[in-house]
Design brief:
The protein has 366 residues and is α/β, with parallel strands linked by helices. 58% of the residues lie in helices and 11% in strands. The chain is built from 18 helices and 8 strands. The strands form 2 sheets. It has a 6-stranded parallel β-sheet, sandwiched between helices. It has a two-stranded parallel sheet with strand order 7-8. Strand 3, helix 3 and strand 4 form a beta-alpha-beta unit. The protein starts with a strand and ends with a helix.
Length: 366
């Protein structure tokens, strides 16, 4: 059985199941979901808790299996938590998890919680994961995407009796907040809690938080990664792209890795165009290239806007920047690797936005 994260509370109100598997790469949301299940379990008499972390090829699964059938003298019901940070339980673990899943059908004295990182499609199709889903409840914890982050912040503020001003000022405040915490949801949660301490919602302003208060209180704790950079570029968000590149440079990210991400997007656009030219429908071409999810939607929007000639120019630019980040000089390009990456990213960004004039300016800037 699969449920979405926002359905968990309603699900638990209907009754606690004996097996839950949580998977995803957003630690804060996964931890909050676990806490919600634990609270419900404790209220129903699950007073003992045992935890296992699966690490290494020689992990002893027999202890995990034994724990599910043993209770102490002081508890009638127990929680057994199995953490698999790698997402790969191994051959012995696969068999053990299938056995645990089958036992969970009739074992009301043990609540089993299995936590995993984000799983690829092959792992989700494995026998052990299918058993966990069939006999228990599966909850995928997905990150809060950048467009949804301001609303998520507003909801968190509302939970502690606070809100931003209405209208344009409030939207500006939320956007500023989102810019400062992008990619770091745990930090966003902590900054929201800090606002509750600094500006408690018991004053005459009824909990309204102004821009100046947020600006003074919220630190720049954004954490950027090259995968989010790809999303920003394909979305055509030039200002966000420049901010992310500056952040990646400040964090010491390798220039070659940033270049690889940008050039892979360009090559993927080229391969998709070639597949379409060969007669494949766009959804089929993207599936063959293993492009799905939010990235698939971006490619579907971008591909009709970019010509073969524009992609050829992007490929040549990517080739030039490849040499620059490896220490070579290229005519008509900045000598600095990061400046060259800025130019390449903005060139691709402008084309994804559908602005040929902007693309030309990006190509000849610097």
């Amino acid at each position: 059985m699969q449920i979405a994260a926002n359905q968990l509370d309603a699900h638990l109100q209907r009754g606690l199941r004996s097996l839950y598997v949580l998977h995803g790469d957003e630690p804060l949301l996964q931890q909050e979901a676990l806490d919600t299940i634990r609270r419900t379990a404790r209220a129903q008499g699950y007073t003992e808790r045992t935890s296992f972390t699966v690490a290494g090829a020689h992990f002893d699964w027999s202890e995990v299996l034994a724990s599910g059938g043993s209770l102490s003298l002081f508890a009638d019901q127990q929680i057994v938590e199995i953490r698999i940070p790698s997402g790969k339980p191994g051959k012995e673990g696969s068999v053990a998890l299938q056995h645990i899943a089958e036992l969970a059908r009739n074992n009301t004295s043990t609540l089993t919680l299995v936590t995993l990182p984000r799983l690829d499609k092959a792992t989700q199709a494995s026998a052990w994961f299918a058993a966990l889903e069939n006999y228990g409840v599966s909850l995928q914890v997905t990150p809060i995407e950048r467009p949804a982050l301001p609303q998520w912040i507003a909801q968190r503020l509302a939970l502690q009796g606070q809100r931003v001003a209405s209208g344009e000022e409030g939207q500006r405040t939320l956007q500023f907040f989102a810019d400062r915490v992008e990619g770091n949801l745990l930090a966003a949660h902590q900054e929201v809690q800090k606002l509750a301490l600094l500006y408690p919602a018991d004053g005459s302003d009824a909990g309204v938080i102004g821009f100046s208060q947020v600006e003074a209180a919220v630190l720049n704790v954004a954490r950027y990664d090259v995968f989010k950079l790809s999303e920003a570029v394909l979305s055509g968000h030039a200002v966000r792209v420049q901010r992310m590149l500056d952040g990646l440079q400040a964090e010491g990210e390798a220039e070659v890795l940033v270049h690889y991400t940008l050039s892979e997007d360009i090559r993927a656009l080229k391969r998709a165009r070639d597949a379409m030219a060969a007669g494949r429908p766009l959804p089929v071409a993207l599936r063959e290239l293993r492009i799905w999810g939010p990235r698939e939607r971006l490619f579907e929007r971008v591909l009709p806007r970019i010509s073969d000639a524009a992609i050829a120019e992007l490929l040549q630019s990517a080739h030039s920047v490849d040499g620059i980040v490896k220490g070579l000089k290229q005519a008509d390009w900045p000598h600095s690797g990061w400046q060259a990456l800025h130019r390449l990213a903005l060139q691709l960004c402008a084309l994804c936005r559908g602005s040929s004039g902007s693309a030309a300016r990006a190509m000849h800037a610097g």
